[in-house]
Amino acid sequence: MNRKGILIVVSGFSGVGKGTLMKCLTERYGHYALSISATTRPPRKGEEDGREYFFKTKEEFEQLIKEERLIEYACYCGNYYGTPCDYVEDQMEQGRDVILEIELQGALKVRQKYPEALLLFVMPPDAQTLLSRLQTRGTETEDVIRARLERAVEESQDVEKYDYMIINDDLEQSVEKLHSLIESQHYKMSRNLDFVRQIRKEIKELAKGE
Ligand code: 5GP
Known about the structure:
alpha/beta
């Protein structure tokens, strides 16, 4: 039986540790395909074009929008972020589980386009931990941290629209929880209707003595 690829959206407040979580998950389980987004945000220290993001100018990004080459895009704290179509569609066709690590507005657009997508939200154990993580990361200025916290307040209003939440307390446990949540989706009846129809037909034929 061919296993169909699942489209998984992972969101979470800035600083919650989604990046580390995704890195561990994809390194441990080789069958996941992590989509690389395009953004107009400048690279952080250590980030490389084509690895963390495809870094674009505003004009280049707007060209991608115009040419309809993005599944979704959103403006987040003054920068554009978007998911290129090609990779996602290609990987899904090959039966791989594709992960999009994107913010809430984009997640909701994905849900409209792909109603079967699995939407997961990563939570911090508490608000203070979120702030400490944002500060100790040391990649953002105070102003950017403030803007991201304000955005987290807005995002927190809509988290019920996601299917599941994971509290990122212990990295190891969070990776395992994420993996088993995704894995369980493969067994949903609604994702296996081709198999159901086939077995129904076979049993019927068997019962008739064919
Ligand atoms: P950061 O600047 O910290 O890398 O990302 C800021 C936010 O943008 C995060 O919440 C991240 O998940 C989100 N993001 C990254 N790529 C995309 C994308 O392609 N589309 C959307 N809508 N959000 C994205």
